[in-house]
Every structure is written in structure tokens, then in C-alpha cells.
């Protein structure tokens, strides 16, 4: 499906969800907790965290760690959950504006239990990404690039389709790679902050799509003929899946096919 057709399908589903179901406060809390566990598990799993979905649930809901699992994996889960809560608060703010401080706070909350000295601070040295020809910018360029990045996002926020915009924000933050570690998880939190603020569902990228996810990012970062299309479409498909999951939980019937002239 082309990205324009994908955006149209997503927006049609969004309207169906909005028109069919109002949630109570208790349901909002339940849904937030559901996605809190799911996003924490999937985002960490993409980076090699060994906790299963059930282990993540038990840790976050009951505070019980799993014997034999690395303590770092547990700190990554609890840190991500704190960053998720902050992300939701920011996304639902009436006067929300994207700032460097918000991005730094997301990183700090995620990584303060793992490496307090580097949490919420830009890297001071060069980093390399294995398996790709792409080399992130030098450390001394980071402060300027981040200022430009935030300014660009605030200019584009009402120009690009929200799915395109959220995917772009994710990809550009990963390009800049401002932190020593935790760039991917911070980028996925930033992406979801944008999606929630624009009224869309939280996107989790399941570990089974890890190869597609990395490949799509590499296509956007290659030196010859770079393209965001595959990455944007992957995020869009994950949004569609999140919408279907939402409708399944609240017994909202979606049409099996929405007529779209742009589909192929």
C-alpha cells in the first residue's frame, strides 16, 4: 500500500474509533497501562533486552524481578515506564511545544537507573552503528544539530501528515544519535509523543519486525538515493495494527476493506 493510501486508511479508522466509543476515566487508565507494558517490552526487546512481555508486566505491575535476568534489563524496563508516563503527560498538554528539554527528559528518565552520569546529556565522543555504512555526526556538532532539529520539527508539525511527521522525528533523532546509548528508545518515545498528541494510537514495533525496522532505517540513511518511504510505511502499518488492537479490546467493528482510490 502506498503511503498516501495508508494515511487515508489510518485516518478513516481513527474517525470510526472517535465516533463509536467514548472511554471512561477508568478505561483510559487501563488502556494507558496496557500500552505502557507493550511499548516498554517491544522497545527494549528491539535493543536486546531479555525480558519477556509477561516478565515486563510482572515487573512493572507488581515490582517483582525475574531470577537470573540481568539487573540492567530490569532497570531498562522501569526506566522506560517512567519515560512513558512523562511522554503521555507531555502529549496531552494543551500548549505542548517540542523542545530539547523534553527530549533530554525522556532520555534521562529512561537511562538514569542505568548510567546516571550520562542520563539526559548529549554524548561527548564519536559513536558507531554496526552493520551500516552510516556514521553519526561528531559530538561537537550535536548541540547545534539538536537546536536545528527541534526548530524543524515545530515548523513541520502542521505541514506533514502526523504519521509521516512522527516517523520523520524518529528517523532524524536516530540520525543525529545525540546520546551515547538509548537513542532508539528515546526516538520511539518521541514518535509516540507526537502520535498521541495528534490523536493516534501508540505504536509498538514488535521484535518480529526488527529486521524490517533496521532495513527501513538504513534505506533512509544510505548515501545514495536515500528514501524514507519504507520507514514511513512501516510506522503506518504498526499504527493500523494498534488501531485494530484498540477496536478488538472495545468491540468496535471495523470494515474489512475501506474503499480507497490510491490503493494498489
Layout: helices, strands, pairs:
Elements: H1 3-20, H2 25-46, H3 53-62, H4 71-91, H5 100-111, H6 142-156, H7 162-176, H8 183-197, H9 210-221, H10 229-249
Helix pairs in contact: 1-10, 2-3, 2-4, 4-5, 4-8, 5-8, 6-7, 7-8, 7-10, 9-10
A few lines on this structure:
The chain is mainly α and 264 residues long.
Instruction: State Rg.
Output: 18 Å
Largest sheet: none
The percentage of residues in β strands lies in under 5%
Q: What is the helix/strand order?
A: HHHHHHHHHH
List low-confidence stretches.
258-264
Give a description of the structure:
By secondary structure, the protein is mostly helical. It has helices spanning 3-20, 25-46, 53-62, 71-91, 100-111, 142-156, 162-176, 183-197, 210-221, 229-249. Mean pLDDT is 92; it is low at 258-264.
Features:
mainly alpha; single chain; disordered C terminus
Amino acid at each position: 500500500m502506498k503511503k498516501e493510501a495508508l494515511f487515508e486508511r489510518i485516518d478513516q479508522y481513527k474517525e470510526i474509533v472517535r465516533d463509536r466509543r467514548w472511554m471512561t476515566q477508568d478505561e483510559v487508565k487501563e488502556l494507558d497501562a496496557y500500552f505502557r507494558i507493550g511499548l516498554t517490552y517491544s522497545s527494549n526487546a528491539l535493543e536486546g533486552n531479555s525480558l519477556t512481555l509477561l516478565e515486563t508486566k510482572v515487573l512493572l505491575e507488581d515490582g517483582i524481578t525475574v531470577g537470573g535476568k540481568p539487573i540492567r534489563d530490569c532497570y531498562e524496563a522501569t526506566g522506560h515506564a517512567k519515560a512513558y508516563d512523562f511522554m503521555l503527560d507531555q502529549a496531552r498538554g494543551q500548549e505542548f511545544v517540542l523542545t530539547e528539554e523534553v527530549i533530554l527528559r525522556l532520555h534521562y528518565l529512561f537511562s538514569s537507573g542505568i548510567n546516571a552520569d550520562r542520563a539526559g546529556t548529549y554524548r561527548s565522543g564519536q559513536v558507531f552503528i554496526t552493520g551500516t555504512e552510516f556514521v553519526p555526526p561528531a559530538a561537537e556538532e550535536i548541540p547545534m544539530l539538536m537546536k536545528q532539529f527541534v526548530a524543524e520539527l515545530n515548523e513541520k508539525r502542521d505541514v506533514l501528515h502526523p504519521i509521516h511527521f512522527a516517523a520523520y522525528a524518529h528517523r532524524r533523532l536516530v540520525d543525529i544519535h545525540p546520546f551515547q546509548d538509548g537513542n532508539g528508545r528515546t526516538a520511539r518515545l518521541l514518535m509516540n509523543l507526537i502520535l498521541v498528541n495528534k490523536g493516534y494510537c501508540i505504536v509498538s514495533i514488535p521484535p518480529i519486525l526488527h529486521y524490517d525496522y533496521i532495513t527501513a532505517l538504513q534505506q533512509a540513511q544510505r548515501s545514495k538515493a536515500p528514501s524514507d518511504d519504507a520507514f514511513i510505511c512501516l510506522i503506518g502499518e504498526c499504527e493500523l495494527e494498534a488501531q485494530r488492537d484498540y477496536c478488538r479490546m472495545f468491540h468496535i467493528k471495523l470494515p474489512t476493506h475501506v474503499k480507497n482510490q490510491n490503493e494498489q
